[in-house]
Amino acid sequence: MSERISLTMQVNGQPYPMEIDPRVTLLDALPEHLNLTGTKKGCDQGQCGACTVLVNGQRVLSCLTLAAQADGAEVTSIEGLQSASGELHPVQRCFVENDAFQCGYCTPGQIMSAVACIKEGHAGSDDEIREYMSGNLCRCGAYPHIIDAIKQAAAEMAKESA
């Protein structure tokens, strides 16, 4: 039997103490220990971006991040984007309005990366968005709609913060 470690993550604003195997990834900890099933396992090798979450505001591939690395960190998963009243985050809403998904499997990772892309200031042009979203793959090819959604969300968020 493997040794277990104690850690506490702030996930979507709530503290979660856990006793886990030190080899558990953040991707596996979210659904298995916290019942948060929105983050998707795509390639499990850090190549597709489906598992993207934010750790202390920075996007990370949760399949390549040990849960232990997030000890004491603020983790935001797709479930943590909407407001307490249930209102969608502007990026989520713009993805819906622009039909920026088809099968939807990559959508949580796309949205989390898009939130970071906008926050990082990389939503100034289609080419810039393509570059900074290039780590997120969409097997259905919804890329033009994803770019439109990100541009719309970035514009709306800029107006809100002005």
Automatic annotation (TrEMBL):
Residues where [2Fe-2S] cluster 2 binds: Q102, C103, G104, C106, C138, R139, C140
Top-level taxon of the source organism: Bacteria
Binding-site list for [2Fe-2S] cluster 1: G42, C43, C48, C51, C63
Pfam families named in the record: Fer2, Fer2_2
Entry keyword Secreted: no
Domain 2Fe-2S ferredoxin-type: 5-81
GO molecular function: 2 iron, 2 sulfur cluster binding; metal ion binding; oxidoreductase activity, acting on the aldehyde or oxo group of donors
Name of the protein: Aldehyde oxidase small subunit
Lineage of producing organism: Bacteria, Pseudomonadati, Pseudomonadota, Betaproteobacteria, Nitrosomonadales
